## 1
Amino acid sequence: MRFRRTACSLALVATACGCGIQPTGVVDAGEHPWGAASGTRLYFVSAGRLSTAGRPGRGVGPAEAVKLVLRGPSRAERERGLTGAVPAGVTVKVAAEGESVTLTPDRALSRLAEGQLVCTAAEAQAAGRGVPLSSVKVTVVAGTPTGCDAYLR
């Protein structure tokens, strides 16, 4: 009986003391991990900025990922506050080769809408090729080659 009381007392003391790890602010750890992963990462909008949403399942290429963005956020994503900046009815032709993707929307888009498409296509191409996101360059026809990082600043 005395052993149980001692063990309980030690457990209570250990719990009260905590683990000793002090809280910190946000620590920048650089670019997110890349390489083989399941699912697809899409870019939507939250509070006027690009925000990612992971869709479970097998990863898709840039053309299919762009189609998913054009359909807009899922119900669960909308409940998290995500919206889309790409206007309804926009169509986009997608061509991908190596670490380059070309997007040809049927009309001019806002910078935020363009960023949704550029970052989504770049993520899909990077994941499919197993390369870092920063190595994929996306051209929006009549634009200049750019990377997703230009839209995240």
## 2
Amino acid sequence: MSHQSFIDLQQQIIDFTIEGKYKAVQQLLNEKESEFAEKVDQMVFWKACVLASLGQKSEAVQVLEEAVDNGVWWHPDLLKKSADLYSLQGDRRFNKIIERCEQMDALKLR
């Protein structure tokens, strides 16, 4: 798949999200996951956002935990300030993910 295809996927996800079609986003992400393995950080982030938006907070945290366990991480501010993940704020497991990402970010800056 080309870079343009990922941009198209991203636009489709944005459009579905604006329309409140979270199940369609979920299905699209599941279908395209293997095609965009090099974009695992973005794909997992979107999955967590959709799950949290659907009220599936535990599943959203689990998706993030599994990714972090496999070496994926995000800038901590992305996790802290994302409106889609707001419902996870204060969750002990989510806070641990943020801590781990802060550690990875600190290592990157060395």
